[in-house]
Predict the 3D structure of the following.
Amino acid sequence: MKEQLANIRAQALEAFEQAKASADLDALRVKYLGKKGELTAVLKQMGRLSAEERPAMGQLANEVRAALESALDTASKKLEAAALEHRLEAEAVDVTIPGRAPAIGHRHPMYIALDEMKEIFIGMGFTVLDGPEIELGELNFDRLNAEPGHPSRDWSDTFYFDQDEKVMLRSQTSPMQVRAMDTMKLPIRIIAPGRVYRKDEVDATHSPMFHQVEGMVIDKGVTMADLKGTLNTVIKKMYGESTQTRFRPHHFPFTEPSCEVDVQCHKCGGVGCPTCKGEGWIELLGAGMIHPHVLEMAGIDPEVWSGWAFGFGLERTAMRRFKIDDLRLIFENDVRFLEQF
Ligand code: PHE
C-alpha cells in the first residue's frame, strides 16, 4: 500500500508538471483526487489494515493528498501566468506607431462666403428667407412682369415640368420677392439665398445649377441711393474697403430703373486679363427699383411704398472672395481644392 501511494504520488506529480492547459489539470484532479480517483481507491483499502498499521498509513495518505493538492495549485498558477503572458503578447499595442488622423470636414468656400454675406445683412436688419426650388411659372415670371413671350421664358433656357409652363425649376431667386410681398407685413427687408436652374452648358463661368442671393427692401421713401449705399457697404465689407464698384444701366422686367453691379477684377486690378475677359470688371449682381406694376400685383400701393431688389450670383461672389478662377472647382468637391479654405 505504501508503494501504491508512492507510485500515485510520483505519477501524479509528473502528470501535473506536464499539463498544457487548465482543462488538463481539471481532468487530472478528478483522476487522482476525485471521489472515484486513484487516491480514494487506495484509501478504501485502509479497512483491511491492522489497527497498528492504520495511523501511519493514514498519515502517509494525507501527506500524499496534501502534496498533490499543492502541486496542482502550483501547476495551475503556472498555466495561468503563461496564459496571461501569451495574451499580453498577442494583444500588445505598439504605442510608437503614428496615429491615424481623423479627416475633419469643414464648410465649403461658397457657404463661407454666404455666411459672411448673411452676417452683414442680418447686421443691417434683414431677415433670411428660404424658398422652393420647384416654383410656379406664375411667381417666377408673371408676377415679376415677364409676360408670356418674354425671352427669359424660352424653353431653351428654362426647365419646365409641363407644357403649360405652370411648374418649373426656378430660374432665379426673384420669385422670393413675390413670396415675401404676399406673406410679410410692410416694411420688408429680406435676403433669400438658394439654388437656381438654367439650361446652360458647363464651362469656367456657367453651370445649369448655380446659386443666387436675392435681396429686397420695401419701405416708405426708399430710393436708388439706399440701394447703392447698401450694396457698396456690403461689397466693401466682403472684399475690403478699397474695392471699386461700378453700377451699369441694365434691363430687368421687374425693376425700373435697373442696373448691373461690377467689382474691379481682383486678378488684374482693372487693367484687363483672361479672368475678367479683358474687361477689368467682374459682374456680381443685378439690381434695381421694384417696378410699380410688380408692387401693384402684390396689392402694395406704389404711391405710398417704394423698394429695391438685387440678385447676387453666389458662386461669383465666392470666387472673387477666395480668388478662384474656375466655377467648376466649386461643384467638383475635390478635397484637395476644398481643404484650402
Ligand atoms: N433675377 C435677376 C437675374 O437672375 C437678378 C435681379 C434680381 C435683378 C433682383 C434685379 C433685381 O438675373
Notes: Residues 172, 174, 252, 255, 258, 286-288, 309-311 surround phenylalanine (CB under 6 Å). The longest strand covers residues 209-219. The longest helix spans residues 53-90. Residues 109-338 form a domain with the BirA Bifunctional Protein; domain 2 fold (CATH 3.30.930.10).
